[in-house]
């Protein structure tokens, strides 16, 4: 994990002092509310329906246990004892006091954390694969590049007032777990014929009101050129993106208006003027960044021997077997496994986590996983480096703590935004819909039989719940003051990136679980052996689902 | 632009308020051309013929590609911010400094506020037309709060990774 040096520490400390000064001037009436607004947003501070909301940055999802314990302390001291894991791998506090935010930032700075650029029209937290560095299908670890991007984008003086927010995601694996096609810039680590590492560059993907799959603008960008090329893209966007309509201000609209070819030419022309500048990455800097993400002190295991004991325990407990199948994941090191802690038991708002739970997770991470955890964009957490022979002991502890719900990747592992219960932008509630679906599908054997299904819920078209890229997506809409839910099918955040298609007219909240059941019955009847929901949908199309969902009952 | 000329703003340069002899001519308005006038980019060719001492200003939508070929003798180039949320001028400033290698005064005019001046400075501005009631000490504090930075910009060609 990255460790601050004196420069990083100083920059973050100075930011706290700067924000304290800005907050004080605002409270003294010396800084206008409309001017304080972009400043507080770039420190992650929203003013919400019930209270301010502070979004704390978790760069590319990595947390150490000192940071987890600090977050626990902050939720206890400054909030109501819980926080929320977001779909962008960040952590949100829902009830901080404006006056205390500078103090919270000072506490965060003590553990090398901050809330920098977690909101506002600037470059946001760079996200990545939750299995970065450990996935067997990985070409190269994306995290050193994420850290390089983090540093370049932090307080970038040219890009603090972009037309709109700007999100970058990086993946280094064969399977895209970072949804790079749905970011303003998506970067895929690739290797050219000479064996050099570089990036395939996607631009103009995004969700929100106008969901778009990103376009490739460069097949191979040498790794040393990363920052100059990013600077060229963001500069072309800053100078040419629309500023007259916030709903048409994202880079996806610019790319579409200009055409991918023209946009690419503009980027290449701008890049030609800066590619040899000192922003060109040095081999030394890439090496330095990589030095923070080396393999921990793994023990040497014989894989077969390590699994022998676990397989015996597995045969004795169906619950343990299900958990192994769904909540643990392949690791590139023999004798190790990654474990997802499910934050999605029925009846808990997806992603919500208490101070005590944060401390318990820190304790587990220290004892089982080299003192590190990862926040996933599925709103769960991952312990990345678990010895196979300790899986049973860990499972028992997780069961006690309530993190062993064996539903990861299944229908009930729902991605869900805070929705109308908290968010001032929402048109409809989303958490009660998630809970109603979890209650409807409480038969785990039925859920397992369905296979992996991404079900994503957003409370408005801003799409924080990523509804467009769920295999099943649910969007809350407001019709004359009443909440309705539109259903989409066929979205895919991974390699064959796709946006969902709208099923038809929206449903009332009470109807949603039953409609989901009808849709799943269509799948179960139509699937061939082993065929996933998504594959079945792609084969048979929307019509059979539509016919079943809107059939009149007699 | 009218509110710009009516508010009797102060010119912040080198950490103090300094005398400002320059007036701003709106786009296409060259009737009252006299020395110390900032004319719009599109009026530059005509104003240059008149032989008066002029600087030029760019709007947020104006491209540095439209600048006259030899800008090094222009004493002042100003960039107008039509609204403080409009950040195009930050990129334009860097292009003027870094690509065009302009070393004269680069002035920010229009709608911006105190906390943006630090970023403007990093992008290459060295003069700021600020509201008449601006508090100099408060501006100086704001400018001095951040003393180190990661990325290269007009004020520092070396990113932190080349200085570490």
Describe this structure as you would to a colleague.
The complex is a heterodimer of chains A (554) and B (164). Chain A is α+β, with helices and mostly antiparallel strands and 554 residues long. Chain A is 38% helix and 17% strand. In chain A, the strands form four sheets. In chain A, strands 16, 17, 18, 19, 20 and 21 form a six-stranded mixed sheet that branches. In chain A, α5 links the parallel β6 (127-128) and β7 (168-171). In chain B, β7, α4 and β8 (127-130) form a beta-alpha-beta unit. In chain B, strands 2-1-8-7-6-5-4-3 form an eight-stranded mixed sheet. Chain B contains five helices and eight strands; from the N terminus they run αββββαββαβαβα. The interface between A and B is large, with 45 and 41 residues.
Largest sheet of chain B: 8 strands, mixed
Gross geometry of chain A: globular
Work out the oligomeric state of the chains in this entry. heterodimer
Read across the widest sheet of chain B, the strand sequence of neighbours is 2-1-8-7-6-5-4-3
State the helicity of chain B in percent bands: 10-25%
Radius of gyration of chain B: 16 Å
Q: Roughly what percent helix of chain A?
A: 25-40%
As a whole number of angstroms, the C-alpha radius of gyration of chain A is 23 Å
SS content category of chain B: alpha/beta
Low-confidence stretches of chain B: none
- Report low-confidence residues of chain A grouped into runs of 5 or more: none
Q: How can the largest sheet of chain A be summarized?
A: 6 strands, mixed
Strand content of chain B: 15-25%
Keywords for this structure?
heterodimer; A: 554 residues; alpha+beta; 6-stranded mixed beta sheet; 5-stranded antiparallel beta sheet; 18 helices; 21 strands; 17% strand; globular; B: 164 residues; alpha/beta; 8-stranded mixed beta sheet; 5 helices
Task: Report a brief summary of the structure.
The complex is a heterodimer of chains A (554) and B (164). Chain A has 554 residues and is α+β, with helices and mostly antiparallel strands.
């Amino acid at each position: 994990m990255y460790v601050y040096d004196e420069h990083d520490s100083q920059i973050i400390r100075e930011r706290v002092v700067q924000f304290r000064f800005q907050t004080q001037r605002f409270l003294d009436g010396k800084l206008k509310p409309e001017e304080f607004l972009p400043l507080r947003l770039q420190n992650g501070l929203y003013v919400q329906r019930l209270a301010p909301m502070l979004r704390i940055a978790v760069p590319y999802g990595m947390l150490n246990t000192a940071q987890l314990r600090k977050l626990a302390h902050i939720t206890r001291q400054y909030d109501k004892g819980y926080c929320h894991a977001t779909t962008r791998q960040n952590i949100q506090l829902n009830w901080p006091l404006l006056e205390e935010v500078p103090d919270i930032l000072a506490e965060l700075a003590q553990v090398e954390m901050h809330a920098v650029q977690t909101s506002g029209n600037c470059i946001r937290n760079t996200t990545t694969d939750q299995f970065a560095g450990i996935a067997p299908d990985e070409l190269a670890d994306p995290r050193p590049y994420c850290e390089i991007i983090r540093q370049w984008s932090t307080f970038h003086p040219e890009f603090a007032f972009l037309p709109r927010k700007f999100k970058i995601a990086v993946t280094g694996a064969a399977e895209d777990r970072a949804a790079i096609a749905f970011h303003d810039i998506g970067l895929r680590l690739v290797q050219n014929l000479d064996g050099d590492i570089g990036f395939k560059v996607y631009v103009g993907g995004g969700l929100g009101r106008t969901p778009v799959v990103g376009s490739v603008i460069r097949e191979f960008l040498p790794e040393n050129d990363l920052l100059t090329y990013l600077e060229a893209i963001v500069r072309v966007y800053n100078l040419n993106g629309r500023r007259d309509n916030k709903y048409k201000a994202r880079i996806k609209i610019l790319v579409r208006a200009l055409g991918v070819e023209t946009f690419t030419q503009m980027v290449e022309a701008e890049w030609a003027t800066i590619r040899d500048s000192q922003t060109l990455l040095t081999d030394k800097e890439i090496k330095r960044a990589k030095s923070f993400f080396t393999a921990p002190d793994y023990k040497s295991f014989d894989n077969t021997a390590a699994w022998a004991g676990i397989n015996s325990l597995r045969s004795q407990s169906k619950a343990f077997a299900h958990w192994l199948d769904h909540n643990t994941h392949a690791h590139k090191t023999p004798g190790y496994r990654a474990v997802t802690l499910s934050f999605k038991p029925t009846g808990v708002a997806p992603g919500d986590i208490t101070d005590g739970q944060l401390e318990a997770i820190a304790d587990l991470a220290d004892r089982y996983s080299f003192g590190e955890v990862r926040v996933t964009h599925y709103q769960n957490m991952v312990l990345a480096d678990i010895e196979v022979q300790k899986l049973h002991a860990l499972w028992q502890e997780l069961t006690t703590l309530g993190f062993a719900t064996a539903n990861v990747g299944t229908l009930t592992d729902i991605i869900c935004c805070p929705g109308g219960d908290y968010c001032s932008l929402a048109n409809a509630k989303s958490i009660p819909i998630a809970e109603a679906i979890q209650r409807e599908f409480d038969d785990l054997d039925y859920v397992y039989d369905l296979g992996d299904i991404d079900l994503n819920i957003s409370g408005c078209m801003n799409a924080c719940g990523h509804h467009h890229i769920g295999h099943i997506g649910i969007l809350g809409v407001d019709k004359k003051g009443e909440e309705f839910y539109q259903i989409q099918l066929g979205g895919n955040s991974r390699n064959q990136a796709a946006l969902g298609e709208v099923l038809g007219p929206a449903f009332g909240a009470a109807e949603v679980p039953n409609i989901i059941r009808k849709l799943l019955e269509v799948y179960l009847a139509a699937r061939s052996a082993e065929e996933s929901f998504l594959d079945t949908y792609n084969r048979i199309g929307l019509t059979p689902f539509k016919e079943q969902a809107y059939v009149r009952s007699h | 632009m009218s509110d710009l000329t009516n508010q009797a703003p102060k010119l912040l340069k080198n950490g103090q308020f300094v005398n400002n002899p320059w007036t701003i001519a709106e786009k296409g308005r060259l009737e009252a051309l006299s020395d110390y006038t900032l004319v719009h980019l599109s009026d530059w060719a005509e104003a240059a013929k008149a032989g008066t001492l002029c600087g030029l200003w760019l709007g947020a939508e104006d491209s540095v590609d439209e600048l006259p070929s030899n800008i090094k003798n222009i004493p002042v180039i100003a960039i107008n911010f039509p609204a403080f949320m409009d950040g195009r001028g930050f990129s334009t400033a860097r292009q003027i400094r870094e690509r065009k290698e302009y070393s004269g005064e680069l002035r920010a005019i229009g709608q911006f506020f105190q906390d943006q001046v630090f970023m403007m400075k990093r992008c290459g501005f060295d003069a700021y037309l600020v509201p008449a009631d601006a508090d100099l000490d408060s501006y100086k504090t704001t400018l001095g709060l951040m003393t180190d930075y990661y990325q290269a910009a007009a004020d520092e060609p070396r990113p932190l990774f080349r200085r570490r």
